[in-house]
Design goal:
The complex is a heterodimer. By secondary structure, chain A is α/β, with parallel strands linked by helices. Chain A has 9 helices and 10 strands. Chain A is globular, with a radius of gyration of 18 Å. Chain B is an all-alpha fold. In chain B, strand 2 and strand 3 form a beta hairpin. The longest helix of chain B is centred in the first third of the chain and has 24 residues. The chains are: A alpha/beta, B mainly alpha. At the A-B interface, helix 2, helix 3, helix 4 and helix 5 of A face helix 7, helix 8 and helix 16 of B.
Chain lengths: 245, 328
């Protein structure tokens, strides 16, 4: 199917009197790598939550692959091909690393593939993903045994286990060292090369610039810039938002 | 081990237990054994919702009593065989579980627990004011002296509860090792993340409340025939609610073995205390054990064993269990 993979039109969300999102329009093409930036409180996470279904939008619509999805539950959106990683890792603590991947494979991956897979196939797919993110030797461990960067990788691997067409990585690099940030960026690019469209929400500008083919900037719930990264960061409006007048 | 092999082993073991009890030839063994088996069912039923999905139900007594009063109702309206009454009691309690799920499953933690407690109070009030099933004064259910093929009626009730315990254990173990079990575990650990992984959390929680309620109702249906006289204070008794929670917590909540071990240990202790010291001592025993385990071993007996013998921890369940990942 042609046309954008994700389309958000006039999206609005209020929390009481606070306007978190004010008529956001954006679209993401298939296979694209998009960076989404903005100061704290600009509405990035609210936008992600509205796209993924964790929050219901008040106005506007969200379409995925030509289908309107903004009234669907979160799990239905995941099954259609939208997966996310969380800003603070939220692993399933009682399950092993391999079993953490099994949950989305069983509930979203099978639904996406339209077939039940054998336990052997699931195990092989899980092993492949763990190999990709560098956690192959941790498969039998509990999440509590993982380091911070390993936890972030588990988040990404679990999101990938849902076989998404769109992956939204919400601050996957917060609190990581430069070397670890470089690892995660390389990982995200590798995932994108597997055909996954990725939206990266991040404060680490070096990583955003390295990763993104296009940059979107939110400020106070409104989109103020959308374009090539080099052009966007020189935009006077963006400079004002980040550095003040 | 495949589920049907496990089921056959349970059936063989149950046959051994029944045969052994008949060899002992003491009626009290059947009386006391019935209570232990009843608590095995209640503990497994509670654990399906409370242990597997993490939703603590304080209203177990209500589901148990619904099963019991379904039996009382049909005993007066049109007497039916007890296995059929168990199915009817299970259906009524299962539907009540489904209804409670729709009403209360958007609540979490203490709020959900309070809602289940409130359900028990509401249902008890309804039964107290329902004259047809005896109201506050209670109802007598005269059981036959004997039953065809088995003889003694208490032995028949024991056998039925034994069969139900086998069914409850096999179901709990089957859930634990299935796609459904992974969904439940994901809900217990992090509901938001579970939903983001494609788990239909509300549907799975409704399955859990329905199954849990149904087993409790099935356990309650033979109760009027066992006790002979049922009144609201007995059927909705605090000991059912407390025991249903305490037994899985003492045994360990994340696996079917925990509620089984906890129920056998605590119910046997209670029976022993009832006979040797005082019938009032039963709940005290449970309370002390519960406090002790919460402080010393929050993972219960199973958790303790796994801590000291890591080799006893199971590996990936689905991969060992079945060749295909079946949908619930």
């Amino acid at each position: 199917m042609s046309g954008p993979l994700l389309e958000v039109a006039n999206l609005g969300k209020r929390f009481g009197g606070f306007v978190a999102l004010d008529g956001i329009d954006l679209s993401v093409a298939r296979g694209e790598r998009v960076g989404l930036i903005g100061p704290n409180g600009s509405g990035k996470s609210t936008l992600v939550n509205c796209i993924c279904g964790t929050l219901a939008n008040d106005t506007g619509l969200v379409s995925f692959d030509g289908e309107r999805i903004d009234r669907l539950d979160t799990h239905e959106r995941t099954r259609r091909g939208i997966a996310r990683s969380f800003q603070l890792p939220r692993p399933f603590a009682s399950l092993t690393v391999a079993e953490n991947l099994l949950v989305p494979m069983l509930y979203a991956g099978n639904a996406r593939a339209g077939a039940r897979r054998s336990a052997t196939e699931l195990a092989a797919r899980g092993a492949d993903l763990l190999q990709l993110v560098g956690l192959a030797d941790k498969a039998g461990h509990r999440p509590r045994d993982l380091t911070q960067v390993e936890m972030r990788k588990l988040e990404l691997a679990r999101a990938m286990a849902a076989e998404p067409r769109l992956l939204i990585a919400d601050e996957s690099m917060a609190g990581l060292s430069q070397v670890e940030v470089a690892e995660i960026v390389a990982l995200l690019i590798a995932l994108n090369e597997r055909g996954v469209t990725i939206i990266l929400i991040e404060h680490v500008m070096r990583a955003v610039m390295q990763f993104s083919q296009r940059l979107i900037v939110l400020v106070s719930g409104a989109k103020i810039a959308d374009g090539a990264p080099d052009a966007v960061i020189r935009d006077p409006q963006v400079e004002r938002a980040y550095l003040g007048q | 081990m495949r589920s049907w092999v496990f089921f056959l082993i349970c059936v063989a073991f149950a046959a051994g237990v029944f045969g052994g009890a008949r060899l002992v030839g003491n009626d009290y063994a059947f009386f006391a054994g019935y209570v232990v088996l009843q608590f095995i069912v209640l503990a497994q039923a509670w654990n399906i919702l409370g242990g597997y999905t993490g939703y603590v139900n304080f209203g177990s007594a209500a589901f148990f009593a619904l099963g019991a009063y379904t039996a009382v109702f049909f005993h007066k309206f049109h007497p039916l065989p007890i296995p059929l009454l168990m199915l009817l009691g299970g259906s009524v309690s299962g539907l009540a579980g489904l209804g409670m799920g729709y009403l209360a499953l958007r609540l979490r933690g203490a709020f959900f627990a309070i809602a289940t407690l409130a359900l028990a109070v509401v249902l008890q009030t309804l039964v107290v004011n329902w004259n047809y099933v005896g109201g506050a004064r209670g109802a007598y259910v005269i059981r036959p002296e004997s039953v065809w093929l088995i003889g003694n009626y208490v032995q028949y009730l024991f056998l039925l509860m034994l069969a139900l315990a086998v069914l409850a254990i096999t179901t709990a173990r089957g859930i634990e090792r299935s796609r459904l079990g992974y969904g439940f575990a994901a809900i217990r650990d992090d509901e938001l993340a579970a939903e983001a992984c494609g788990v239909p959390t509300l549907r799975l929680k409704l399955i859990a409340t329905t199954l849990s309620g149904a087993f409790m109702g099935m356990a309650g249906a033979p109760f009027p025939y066992y006790i002979g006289y049922v009144q609201p204070a007995a059927a909705f008794g605090l000991d059912y609610a407390v025991n249903s929670i305490a037994m899985p917590m003492i045994g360990g909540t994340t696996t079917w073995i925990g509620p089984l071990v906890g129920a056998i240990l605590v119910a046997s202790l209670q029976q022993w205390a009832t006979v040797t010291i005082s019938s009032e001592l039963g709940l005290l025993v449970v309370g002390l054990l519960l406090v002790g385990f919460v402080v010393v071993a929050p993972g219960g007996i199973v958790g303790l064993v796994r801590k000291h013998f890591p080799a006893a921890s199971p590996g990936p369940r689905l991969g060992r269990e079945s060749k295909t990942a079946d949908a619930p």
